[in-house]
Amino acid sequence: MLSQKIVLSGIVCSDKTGERLSQATITIEGTNLSVVTNDEGFFTLKVNAYPKNITVSHIGYQSYRQDINAEKPERMLIRLKPRAIQLQEVIVMSQDPRDLVNLAIQKIPVNYSRQAELLNCFYRETAMKRKHFIYVAEGVVDMYKTGYGHGDSKDRVAIRKGRRLLSPAKNDTLGVKVLGGPVQPIQLDIVKNLDFLLNEEELSHYALKMEEPTTIGNRLQYVVSISPSDVTPYALYYGKLYIDCETVAFTRAELTLDMSDREKATRLMLIKKPAGVKFRPKEMSCLIDYRYDNGVTRINYIRSTLRFNCDWKRRLFATSFSAFCEMVVTDNTRENVVSISGRNSFDSRDAFFDRVDYFRDPNFWEDYNIIEPTETLDKAINKLIKKYK
Question: Whole-model pTM above 0.70?
Answer without folding.
Answer: yes
